[in-house]
Amino acid sequence: MASPKMRADHSPETFVFSLQLHSMRGLGGLDAQLAAACVAGFQAVEALERHLAFPSDLQASLARFELSCPSIHITMPTLLQGPEAIIDGCLEASIPSVFVNPMPLDDPFDPRDWSKAGEKLAQLAEAFGERGILLGYHNGVHGFDPLKTGRCGIEDLFRAAAGSALKWQADIGWIRRARGNPAEWLKRLQAYLISAHVKDVGADYDVEEGWQDVGAGLLIWPILLKTAVQFGARSFVVEHDNPPDPAEFARRSFAYLSRYNGSAGLLGAT
Q: Per the database entry, which stretches of residues form a coiled coil (predicted)?
C-alpha cells in the first residue's frame, strides 16, 4: 500500500504518517537519516529544532529525498526567546505545524505551573496562527496525575488555553508510561487533538529504554489509531527514543502501520 502524502490542510480524508528524526540520530547526519526514512517507505518526517538552524538547507535536503516535513518539535525555552525566528524558519522550510516538547515546570504537581504554561502557549499559538502556522503542545510523562484541583495537569494547561488556537499532539506511548489510558485521554481532550505520536511500549524498561518497534510492544494499535482518528488526529508520527537499529526500526514500523492506512484501516469502524 502506498504511503500517504502530506497535505497541510488537515482535511478529514487526509492522514499523514511521518518519521520523527530523533529516532534516526544514530545514523549520523541529516542526509543519512532522510535516506533511511525513504528506504523504509516514509514520504514525510518530523524535524527537530536543530534542523531549523538553516531552513534553506533543510528544505533542500527534503527536496533531494522527495520528503515533506509537516511538523517540527521546538523547545519551550527557544520559543520564549521570541517566536519570530521559528515562524520565519518554518515558512521558509514549508513546515505548517510546530509542536512544543514537554516544557520544564518548577513543579509538575502544582496546577498553577500548568495554568501558567497554558496561558503562555495560548499567546504563542495566536502569534503563530497569525502567520499561518499551527502550534500545539506535545505531552511527556507528566500531566496525567490528578492534582489538588481535581483535574490533571494537562487538563489545567488546556483549560488555561481555552479559546486559543493551541492544539495537542498526543504522545500515546508516554500516556501509557504515565499509567494513563490512551484511548480515554484521546477522547477527553478531543477538542484539541490534531496529531499523535505512535510510540510502542515494551514490558522491560531495561531493554531499549522500555520502547519497541511499532507493533512489537504492548499497545493495541488497530484500536488506538482508529480512536485517534475518531477524535481528531490527522497526522501520526512514528518514534522510538533509542532504537538499536534505527533503519530497521523505521522499516518494520512503517510496514506494520501501512496496513492501517486508507478506508479499510484508519477510516474503518472502531
A: none
State the pLDDT at residue 79. 93
Q: Tell me whether residue 107 is exposed, middle or buried, using C-beta atoms within 10 angstroms of its C-beta: 0 to 12, 13 to 18, 19 or more.
A: exposed
Set out the domains of the chain in order of their start, with CATH numbers.
16-258 (3.20.20.150)
* pTM (2 d.p.): 0.92
Cα separation, 105 vs 172, whole angstroms: 21
Q: Is the dihedral of CA 176, 179, 184, 189 positive or negative?
A: negative
Q: Over the range 242-270, which residues count as b (16 or more CB within 10 Å of their CB) and which as e?
A: ebeebbebbbbbbebbbebbeeebbeeee
pLDDT in the model for residue 110? 95
Handedness of CA 80, 83, 84, 90 (dihedral sign): positive
- Residue 181 pLDDT class (50, 70, 90 cuts): very high
Please give the grid coordinates belonging to residue 9. 490542510
Q: At 21, list the grid cell.
A: 528524526
20: CB partners within 8 A, 6+ apart? 45, 46, 73, 197, 237, 238, 239
pLDDT at 5 over 90: no
Q: Return the pLDDT at 260.
A: 80
Q: How many residues does the chain have?
A: 270
220 Rama class: left (phi>0) / alpha (psi -120 to 50) / beta: beta
Given a contact cutoff of 8 angstroms between Cβ atoms, the answer to whether 44 and 68 are in contact is: yes
Rounded to 10°, the helix 111-130/153-160 angle is 40
